[in-house]
Structures are given as structure tokens and as C-alpha cells.
Amino acid sequence: MEKKQQPHVVMVPLPLQGHVKPLLCLAQLLSEAGLYVSFVNTTQSHKRFTNLETITTHFPNIHFECISDGLPEDHPRALLTEYFEGMKRETTPHFKELLLSLGRKSLTGSSPPVTCIIADGVLPFAVGVAEELGIPIFSFCVHSARFLWGYLNIPKLIEEGQLPFSDGNLYHSINGVPGLEGIFRRKDLPEFCILPDPHHPIIKFFVGETIAMTKTSGLILNTFDELEDSCIHHVSSACNNLYTVGPLHAHINSKLGDRARSIASRGSLYSVEEKCLEWLDSQQPKSVLYVSFGSITQTSLSQLMEFWHGLVNSGKPFLWVIRPGAIIGEEGNEGIPEDLLPGPTERGYIVEWAPQEQVLAHHAVGAFLTHSGWGSVLESIVAKIPMICWPYMGDHYINTQCVNKVWKIGVELEAWDRSTVEKAIISVMETKKDDFQISMDKVAKLAEDSISKGGSSSQNLDKLVEDIRKIKATA
């Protein structure tokens, strides 16, 4: 009887923290299911990984590979069209060669033949290479189903004349998108939708890449059905197969049990400051505001000082992440006021990067001031921590709408002056605390149920694994 070959999945994230972590969580879930995983980083992000040894010790089925993105060392790698077009042009041959080399390894028996690829949906080179080599490919979307559904409706909105617009009113409602009634505004669309020419190359590029995600063997979303039921079935109708398997960080934690503690900062591209957890141990329950604007957001020094004054004036102790490069024009700490330098003070604690999962789960944390990136929203939901949302770009705006108006588990920070910041903190941490907590407990329970045995995400993960096993490997 012929021995069954172990499935081999090649996984490729966009080299950003918010993209690497959920894909790595999925890699760990596939590893736990017995699949062999090659996790592909760019050379630059591979150098920054902080705990590769820990990951490979716990997950011997995960093997890390790295390829050059083909761009010069000094390239800013900002998320602009030129960057993605550069990756498509320069990274394609490197990714193709990696897949061919994995095929050669399989002939020597050092690894199984490649079964399929799971690629970050915004990577512009993966689908073309997969098609050329005849390898099945699944797309992974790090955004919410609502944001993706809005994105997919851009051609329809152009056809209907809702785009482009010339009056400059970003708060005008977008109509006619089922599942997004009452919460969808021009502001919640991608930034390029403000361009006056609907045929602009930037619009064609990004919309084309997004639609390409739906044409792959399947689309994997880091969400769960019960959280976004108004949009899930619409997205499902637009793609071949849909797998909603989130929240992925909670999903892998539930699989690992006690083992999860030792790898909770998995896949961090930043050096994590663990000592802040000891500082949290000394604080009163639900008294601390956690502040983090993610790995992309940049602000002016004057903006950060307004936040600092608002935090101090609220009277709440705070743990604040200010990563290197977060302040526009400041690469290091030179010129930054002492109040914003890393370290503990009597008012709060500033760190360059925090172990966010552990921080949100800590008994001392009572609220989260966030940029509303999808990963942060999901982590906040699982930890049952109400949010104060200060959206910055992309999906942050529609995520904030959901936090504020749909799930009612937080508020939007409508301005960043010190008075508004102070009032928002007091509102969430004092005045309306019980109301937010009731809603949060309800949403968190839905998340917990989804990853439990028989839950929607658990079943969808099982289906994904089963469907991968059914694919004949490419030698």
C-alpha cells in the first residue's frame, strides 16, 4: 500500500508585524494538525525575528526560509504602489527559485513535495508564480470581512457614480452595499478612493490584486462568523472557498494550553520589553490604560505630546508603546522630550514594544487606546478590554465603526487634543465602564465559542486542513 505523503504548505506573509503574526499563528495550527510548513520571510524581516528557536522547538514541522525582496537595502519599503510594484517585479524570480529549490529537496527526501501555497493576499507576486508552476494557492486576508467586502465593491461604486467624489466630504454615507448599511462612509474606503480619476493606475492595481484573492483555491480570513455575519456570506459568494478561522491567536492558544505562555510573543519583529509586566503586577485591577498605535502609524511630536498631556490629565496610570520610528522625522531618541523616553515613571511606563497579548490579559489593564488594526481589535475582544479607537489608515476606520456602533465595545477618539483624549479615557474607564463590559463579555463569548470544539472557526480550520490533504502534491 502506497504511503501517504505529508502535506507541505508554503506560507508567505507581507513583511509587516500585523501580517506576519496571524499567518504564523495559522502556520502553528497547521503544524499541530501534522502538516509540514515552510514559512517564507524576506531577508530583512527574517533578521528581525526575535524567537525563531523557541518556535521551531515547539513546532518542529515549521521550517523558516527567507528570500530577498529584490529591493536595495536603503529602500524605505513604505506601503506605496511603487513598493508593491517593485516587489512584483523584483521578488517574483526569488520566490520562484525558492519553490523550485524546495522541489529539488523533495527529490532527495529532505522535505515533502510542495502541496500548496498560502500567501498574504496583498502580495503581488505569489499568484502569478503559483500559476506558472502549477501549484494550488490559497489567499490569506489580514483584514476584517467588512473591509474586504467594501474593497470588493469599489468597481460597483465607480459604476454607480458614488466614486469618485469631488465635494471632499469623507463622512458622506456609501449606499447600496449589502451588509454595510448604516456604517459605511467614504472615510472607510481605502485612501486611494479620493483620487479623481477612477481609472488611475493605483486604483486598478490595488482593486485588481484584491479581486485576484477571490480567484484562488480558497480565501482564509482571520475572523469568525458570529462577529461579521452581515458580510461573511457576501464575501463567501464572491470567492471559491471561504475559511473563517479566527481569532487565530486565541485559536492556537486554546490548542497549546499551558505551552502558549512560553511562545506568546511569537513572530515579533521587535524586541519585546518583558519588564513592563512586572510593573503591571504592582498596579490596581482595571486601573491601567494600555496605549499602542501598532507597527505602521507615525505621528508628529506635537501629536504625541497632546496624547501625553491627555494621559497624564486623566489621572490613570498608563503603559504606552512608542516604537522607534513612530515619530515623524525621528529615527532614534535624539530630540525627543524626556517624558516620551522609554522607562517607568510615577505616571506610567513607556516601552518600545510590548508583549501585547500578555498585557491585554493582565488584570491591571482596564482599557486599550488603539489605532484599530484588525489584529489589535481581535486581541482586545478576546481579552475583554474596551477600546478607545484612533484610526490611522486603511481598515482602521471601518474597524472603529464596528467597535463603536455595531458591537458597542468602545468609542472613537474624534480628535487628538489633550482635552478630548482625557475625556475619552475617563468615559471608557469610569462613566460607561459597565455598559462596555456587558457588550464586551458577549462578543468575547462568541469568540471563545467559535474556536471551541464544534465552533464555527474550529470546524472551518478542520475543513481547511482536510482540503489541503486532498490536494495532490507538486513534486
TrEMBL record:
Its EC number is 2.4.1.-. SUPFAM superfamilies: UDP-Glycosyltransferase/glycogen phosphorylase. This is Glycosyltransferase. It comes from Ziziphus jujuba (Chinese jujube). The gene is LOC107430822. GO terms for molecular function: quercetin 3-O-glucosyltransferase activity; quercetin 7-O-glucosyltransferase activity. Keywords: Glycosyltransferase, Transferase. Residues 9-46 form the Glycosyltransferase N-terminal domain. Gene3D superfamilies: Glycogen Phosphorylase B (3.40.50.2000). Belongs to the UDP-glycosyltransferase family. InterPro entries: Glyco_transf_N (IPR058980), UDP_glucos_trans (IPR002213), UDP_glycos_trans_CS (IPR035595). The keyword Magnesium does not apply.
